[in-house]
Amino acid sequence: MKDMLREIRKQYLFSALDENNVLPNPFDQFELWLQEAIESEQLEPTAMILSTVDKHLQPHSRVVLLKELTPDSFVFYTNYEGHKAQQMEFNKRVSLVFFWASLERQVRIEGTVEKISEVLSTSYFKSRPIENQLGAWASPQSQLIRSKDFLEQQFQYYKQKFGNDIPKPPHWGGYAVKPVSIEFWQGRPNRLHDRLLFTKEAGIWGISRLAP
Ligand SMILES: Cc1cc2nc3c(=O)[nH]c(=O)nc-3n(C[C@H](O)[C@H](O)[C@H](O)COP(=O)(O)O)c2cc1C
To answer: What fold is seen in the domain 9-128+169-209?
Structure first.
């Protein structure tokens, strides 16, 4: 295994990213790359790694799904009582990473997070399949549970309780990550990758290039 890991190595030849072909607004550039990721039919193109920091300054990372891109934020949905929610309560600074392997691309986002409105969360909740809606009631996210059966029992309990009209749980909803920086990374031959960093100052996005 040790030798195998050392030998896994890929040349990145797919594309390039230059100051004169990147869009001036990073949200437009992100949307373009996301669209290409969706069209490239790779698994879970909207998956992003969310990192948060707890009160002991320990970072935690996990995957969540991007559900909305607004003109100034990246929105995901989760349980408001789980570990990540507690961590975001303690520290609103978070990061997001997208990795689209087949396109040899990474996007890194740093910023602050805030809850979205109950109205928006409810609107999205109602658009989810009924099983997913019940799942949000059934799972006390991040808590220890005694067995797998417990989840199934909870699921059946809420199914009987609500029938087909399931309200949004008060402990479930969306967060919007508002970036202060967004970095686009495109793999290039010989490890001389392109890295374009957008940073926001006084409300205006500026671009700079970083060494790979
Ligand atoms: C592909 C994928 C998508 C996921 N999407 C979400 C999501 O949108 N929201 C969410 O709360 N958890 C999602 N999860 C589960 C999280 O990674 C994590 O296990 C869960 O949110 C609990 O994290 P926490 O204990 O740090 O709060 C996803 C996991 C995977 C692998």
So the answer is: Pnp Oxidase; Chain A (2.30.110)
